[in-house]
Amino acid sequence: MKMKIRVCQGVSGIIIVTMVTGFMLVYNSSSGGRPPSSMASSASSSSRRVDGAVPSTTKPERRQRDQTSTLEGYTGVMDHKPLKMHCRTCALVTSSGHLTGSKRGGEIDSSDCVIRMNDAPSIGYQQDVGQRTSLRVIAHSSLQRVLRSRQELLNVSQDTAFIFWGPSSLMRRDGKGNVYNHLKLLNQLLPKLKVYIISRNKMLKFDELFKKETGVDRKSSNSWLSTGWFTMAIALELCDRTNVFGMVPPNFCRSSSHPSVPYHYYEPSGPDECTMYLSHERSRRGSHHRFITEKKVFANWARTHNIHFYQPDWKPTAVATNTNSSYTPGS
After folding, report:
1. What does the pLDDT read at residue 250?
2. How far apart are CA 244 and CA 309, in angstroms?
3. Are 119 and 146 contacting, i.e. CB atoms less than 8 angstroms apart?
4. Which of 6, 239, 252, 305 is a Cys-bridge partner for 248, taking CB atoms 3.0 to 4.6 Å apart?
């Protein structure tokens, strides 16, 4: 059995080397991964902006570097240093089919920072989801998909920070962490990439946070935190204001009149979003995401933090003061 595991890991490593080295010439000969000059002009000329997204003549990336904060728990794969990043306004772009036809792209790109998840693409969808990416939060299970889309997600993203999350058994640094080993190899081959992982202690804090906010123990309830959970929590540490695009309110899928949209905007023939949410929420066998439970927490956070929801546009309903979250980002 050990031999089989080693063989599988070895083959996986060879696949990653082959996939990455196959486009290194393109990567190294590119213009540094910067977005085309037309991007900034299209963003600044957009007539639709969320409240608080004030136009500026300063380039968003420049503004992002001028003011940095150290975010503990997100460590560089190669140098083991913490992530240093701060954004005044953030557009957190979900992968929801609600973004299809939204034409929110210019609005999204006008933010100081744009946050995306997993392998969600922007090429071909710029009008609805924008084209800039400042931070991408990626699940361990999405690594191979990101590599398959490497020419978009990696080649043009040299100024993008990548945060990978996963079980500590896959992220350990002693040579036995399969995902960490692959990320280290990737970063050795592409040293310009800013690759980070969520530390074991930080992952435990996220588990504690879920239990504190919901009263439910993640492990005993056979739940996996979603990439959306990590991304929202990271945004609270990173951003002064977070504008979330494509996230529905907690009770949206309970209504019989809710529209049917695909789970991912880039998979129009894929599963229905609400069907996915409800099936995961109701399941008690196997490990599942608690999408609706998480959205209740996000709505609660929005009552006390600078979080706003668009596409669909909604605000959390008022509740009694003693039910509000006491969560402090970075605590």
Report:
1. 96
2. 5
3. yes
4. 252
> For residue 295, with 0-12 CB atoms within 10 Å meaning exposed, 13-18 middle and 19 or more buried, which class applies?
buried
**Selection from 92, 106, 142 nearest residue 245 by Cα:** 92
- Sheet strand arrangement including 307-310: 82-84, 70-76, 194-198, 161-165, 135-139, 113-117, 87-93, 239-245, 307-310
Q: CA-to-CA distance for 197 and 131, rounded, in angstroms?
A: 24
pLDDT band at 7 (very low <50, low <70, confident <90, very high): very low
Number of domains within the chain: 1
What CATH number has the domain bearing residue 204?
Answer: 3.90.1480
Domain of 228 in residue numbering reads as 2-323
User: How, if at all, do strands 70-76 and 82-84 pair?
Assistant: antiparallel
> Is 177 inside a domain boundary?
yes
Could you give phi then psi for residue 237, rounded to 5 degrees? -80, -30
Asked, for residue 312, whether it belongs to a domain, the answer is yes
Mean pLDDT along residues 90-103: 98
Of 185, 124, 127, residue with least CA distance to 149: 124
Q: pLDDT tens digit string along 49-86? A: 444 443 333 444 444 444 578 999 999 999 999 999 99
Contacts of 216 (CB under 8 A, 6+ apart): 210, 223, 290, 293
Q: Which tens digit of pLDDT belongs to each residue from 136-169?
A: 999 999 999 999 998 889 865 658 999 999 999 9
